[in-house]
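My current task is to audit a protein record that another person submitted. What it holds is a sequence and that sequence's fold in token form. Thanks in advance; the entry in question is below.
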Amino acid sequence: MRLHTPLLTGVPVDCNSVGVREVEVVEDPSVAIALLHRTRAQVLATLTEPGSSSSVAAALGLPRQRVNYHLRALQAHGLVDLVEERPRRGLTERVFRASAATYVVSPGAVGAVAVDPQRTDRLSASYLVALAARLVREVAAQGRRAEAAGRTLPTLAIDADIRFATPADRAAFTAGLADAVTTLAGRYHDETATAGRWHRLVVAAYPRPAQPGKTHEEST
């Protein structure tokens, strides 16, 4: 079993550059459309480090005018930031940088289908996807509010890979995990705490996707 990232205590995290988020959750449909445009996504991917329309055009093999067009659209949607203007051959060269290292499109940006866990069967894959969609939506919104207030958002994340020998072992683990969570929740839950704060707890498991260079049996 491998256990990853046991505790996260703030969102977002600085990305070694002032003003650059590690993860940006996109919830505005118009921004999502700009982000999912193939050429604009390629332009954005080249701007993890500051670059100009000329450097991006050279990297992608595109005309500079075409890159300029897409840069203006990305800037209008807040996906790139202008970091420098410098003279170059009698003109002013504008240098941009992506506003985040990674972008995640919230399900709410592309429609409300299956984002309400109450509408789905709790034993279905749709229910798990709905929970994940709600998590992205709620944590992103609260993270922005916390950042604006100069605070961190208290969060907990546990990520583990477990290889079960048999379906029976998986079922036994599931029952044991449910019992442990129920016991802990009962120990610390206080319905009457006037200064308390409600938290959501989501525990999920699903087959791990096949890893590059490995067979399905080796990676699951």
About this structure: The two ends are 12 Å apart (CA to CA). Confidence is low (pLDDT under 50) at residues 3-18. Residues 21-104 form a domain with the Arc Repressor Mutant, subunit A fold (CATH 1.10.10.10).
